[in-house]
Amino acid sequence: MKNLLSTKSALGALAACAGILAAQPSVAEVKTELVDYQSDKTLEGYLAYDDSIKEKRPGIVVVHTRRGIQSFVQERTRELASLGYVAFAVDVYGKGIRPREDAPSAAERPRADTRPRASWL
Question: Which residues contact 76 (CB under 8 A, 6 or more apart)?
Fold first, then answer.
């Protein structure tokens, strides 16, 4: 009788584990593609979505850093897609136009305020 109970308990635990594993969400099948679109010039965005989701889902527009659509922006876009969103990284420079260095864009950064201040501020 003792062996029968332990066998039933083991089978019950195994069935429960199988049910839990079956209920786990599937691994995202994130697909990516470059998308050309038009404004006053041709732009090239980066689209990421989970191909296994067939129903409608929310979309997120990702705006890149001053360096353009680089690997960091692409990784964030893929991460959003793995969470169930359709994510699109927009291009603000134009297809094939990417800044090569930070120096020109760093010149646009606000400068520290060097005006004299009252000591009580």
Answer: 62
The length of the chain in residues reads: 121
Domain parsing of the chain, residue ranges: 27-99
pLDDT tens digit sequence for 12-47: 444 444 444 444 455 668 999 999 999 999 999 999
CA distance 47 to 61: 10
- Please give the model's pTM, rounded to 2 decimal places: 0.62
The predicted model gives 75-90 an average pLDDT of 97
3-class secondary-structure state, position 34: strand
Helix (H) or strand (E) holding 61: strand 59-63
Asked if 46 and 74 touch (Cβ cutoff 8 Å), the reply is: yes
Confirm if 43 and 37 have CB atoms less than 8 A apart: yes
- How far, in Å, CA of 31 to CA of 49, rounded? 5
Q: Tokens for 20? A: 């839990």
Residues 73/64, Cβ–Cβ less than 8 Å: yes
The two three-digit tokens of residue 97, written as one number: 């136009």
